[in-house]
Amino acid sequence: MPRYALKIEYDGKPFAGWQRQADQPSVQGAIEAALARLEPREHTIAAAGRTDAGVHATAQVATFDLEKDWDAFRLSEALNFHLKPAPVAILKAAKVADDFHARFSAVERQYLFRLVVRRAPMTHEAGQVWRVRNPLDLHAMREGAAHLVGLHDFTTFRSSICQAKSPVKTIDEITIEERPIPHGQEFRFFLRARSFLHNQVRSIVGTLEKVGSGAWAPDQVKDALEACDRAACGPVCPPQGLYLCCVGYPQDPFTD
């Protein structure tokens, strides 16, 4: 059976997350239902990252096997047709080797978190960013983030229900950018690592927001990390500003 990879974009607002759920809409369920319109049977697809409820993606990757040998472009077009009106888009499809796996073949994942500072509520981008009202100090947040780059025990910054065997992870990069927007500022947090723990990114951004607001000193991030205690973490920020924006492989399956 030929194996295919999909590059997927989706708005996480109406979904209970990536993972298939018995009684709630999921991104995985929507794509598997579309596949069943092409080949009527049960389908199971594997994703590079199982995003939570409300989390978005601009470049999720998923793999699956089909019985028919599909042209990749025709496959993406057919899936996009059957996915309507769900806010899920197949950006590209590619035929891949039988041993390629969206999750286990990945060597890098990148997340973007969008945090907006403005007094007025969001309208056009409601559900796409996290809005706070008080000004944030970019330099202080960068100083706090520097403590988290590298190999660490991230017990403080992972969910209490995280199923990973070890809390030890290496964060390769945390970059924070500030840009003006009408009536406010947008802060963009870029985090890059081979893999992340459950709620790790949202725990980090929520903590750094406390630093930016002046409620925490930058060195308190180091203290929280070294505590290896979930109770030492800052608040976990809401999911709507989070995007899975890149998954890296030894060889990009979508390169022509």
TrEMBL record:
Tell me where in this chain the Pseudouridine synthase I TruA alpha/beta domain is found: 9-104, 145-250
Domain of life where this protein originates: Bacteria
- Give the top-level enzyme category: isomerase
Q: What does the UniProt keyword field contain?
A: Isomerase, tRNA processing
Q: Which reaction does it catalyse?
A: uridine(38/39/40) in tRNA = pseudouridine(38/39/40) in tRNA
Extract one GO molecular function annotation from the record: tRNA pseudouridine(38-40) synthase activity
- EC number(s) of the enzyme? 5.4.99.12
Q: Where does substrate bind?
A: 111
Active site per UniProt: 52 (nucleophile)
Transmembrane annotation, as ranges: none
Q: Say what the protein does.
A: Formation of pseudouridine at positions 38, 39 and 40 in the anticodon stem and loop of transfer RNAs.
Family according to the record: Belongs to the tRNA pseudouridine synthase TruA family.
Quaternary state and interactors: Homodimer.
What is this protein's name?
tRNA pseudouridine synthase A
Q: Which organism is it from?
A: Thioclava kandeliae
Name of the gene this protein is made from: truA
